[in-house]
Amino acid sequence: xxxxxxxxxxxxxxAAAGEVITIKTLISHVMESxxxxxxxxxxxxxxxxxxxxxxxxxxxxxxxTLEPAISTNPYFExxxxxxxxxxxxxxxxxxxxxxYTDTKDIAIG
Amino acid sequence: MTKTVLKGAIxxxxxxxxxxxxxxxxxxxxxxxxxxxxxxxxxDHLKGSLTTVYSGWVFRDVDTxxxxxxxxxxxxxxxxxxxxxxxxxxxxxxxKSCADCHGDASESMAxxxxxxxxWNEAAGEVRSLQMQINACRTExxxxxxxxxxxxxxxxxxxxxxxxxxGMPMNVAIDGPAAATWEQGKEMYYARTGQLxxxxxxxxxxxxxxxxxxxxxxxxxxxxxxxxxxxDTKLTSAAGRxxxxxxxxxxxxxxxxxxxxxxxxxYVASRGNGLSVEGVSVRN
Lengths: 109, 283
Fold this sequence. Notes:
The complex is a heterodimer.
Chain A: E1 6-10, E2 14-15, E3 19-28, E4 49-56, E5 59-65, E6 75-82, E7 86-94, E8 99-108
Parallel strand pairs in A: 2-8
Antiparallel strand pairs in A: 1-3, 3-6, 4-5, 4-7, 7-8
Chain B: H1 8-22, E1 29-30, E2 34-35, E3 39-41, E4 52-54, H2 62-69, H3 76-88, H4 98-102, H5 105-108, E5 118-120, E6 125-127, H6 129-141, H7 151-162, H8 178-189, H9 199-203, E7 210-211, E8 214-215, E9 226-228, E10 233-235, H10 237-247, H11 258-270, E11 280-282
Parallel strand pairs in B: 9-11
Antiparallel strand pairs in B: 1-2, 3-4, 5-6, 7-8, 9-10
Helix pairs in contact in B: 3-7, 6-7, 8-11
C-alpha cells in the first residue's frame, strides 16, 4: 500500500443557494508510474490513484480518470453550483484497492 | 518598511523594495482566516540595534508570499501531512508512537515551537526542538535518532511547529540559558570567513537592501522549518546556518554542533514576538 496517503479538501462552509463555489482537493500520493526502474534495474510496479470522484448529496459532480503520467500529489480545483445545503463526498481510488474518502458539509446562508 | 538609511545608488533599489513590501500590506493571513504577526517591536535586548523585527516573509516577492497564504499552494504542507503519519506510527523497540505518550499533537504540542531552543534541566544543556525530538526517539522510543539535515527530522519538526502556527515566539534567554545565549550573541556579531562577514553585517546593518539579486531579510527564524523553492524541500534553522556560514567562505560548524544551538537560541530571541509560521515558503 502506498504510504502516508492523506487527502485534503477545501469547501466554503456556506454559500448562497445557486452560487458557484470553488473546491480544492489534494491528496499526497507517490503516483508511481510503473515506467521507472529501481537501482537493480527491476521495474517499480505502478501505484497510482486511478479515479477521483466528487458527489453532492448522492449526485455526481465530477468523475475523473487519472493516468500514470499525472505527477505526484494530484491536485484538483473545480467549480460546482450549490443548489441546497448538503454534503460533498470526495473519493479517491488507489491501484492497490484502497479507497480514501473525505466529506465536507456546506450550509446555505 | 521604514528603513531610513538610504544612500546613493542603493536608494533607488530600496525605494523599489519599499513598494514591494507595501503590496503585502494586508499582511500574512493564512487561508483567509489566520492572521500572523510579521512585524513586531524588537525585544529589549535589541535596544540600539533594531526597533522593529520583521518576518522573512515580508522580504519575499509577491508570488512567494502568496504561496504561503494558502495551504494548498504551500508545498511545505505536504510534509506536515507526512509528519502526522509519523506522529501516529509506532517506532523503535518500544513500539510506541509519539501519539501514545503525547496524545493529540494539536493539544500537547501547541505552543511548543515558540519556546525552543530551550534549557533542558535533566540534560543540563540548551536543546533545539530537533534535538529534543531525537532525545525522545532514542531515550523513550528506543529508536535510532533521525539524521540532522535530512527530510525525516525536518518533517517531524514541521508537524510540531504547525501546532504553534500563529503563536508568537517567546524563547527564554535568562536563567540557565543565559550563558548559551551570550555565546550565540557573540557568534552573531563575530566576523567570520574569508569575506569577514558577521551575521549582523547582512541581517542587522543591511536588511531590506540587496546583496546582488537577493533581498536581505533580518534572518529571523520564526518561519522555520522553511520550504525553500531553490531546494524543493524543507530546511531547518541549523541547516540554513550551515549555508550562511559557508557563504562567508568560512569552515562551518557541524549542523548538530552546540555552537549552532547557541546561535539558534540567540537568533530565535531576536524574533521574539513574531508568529511561528509553521512551515513557511522562502526562495
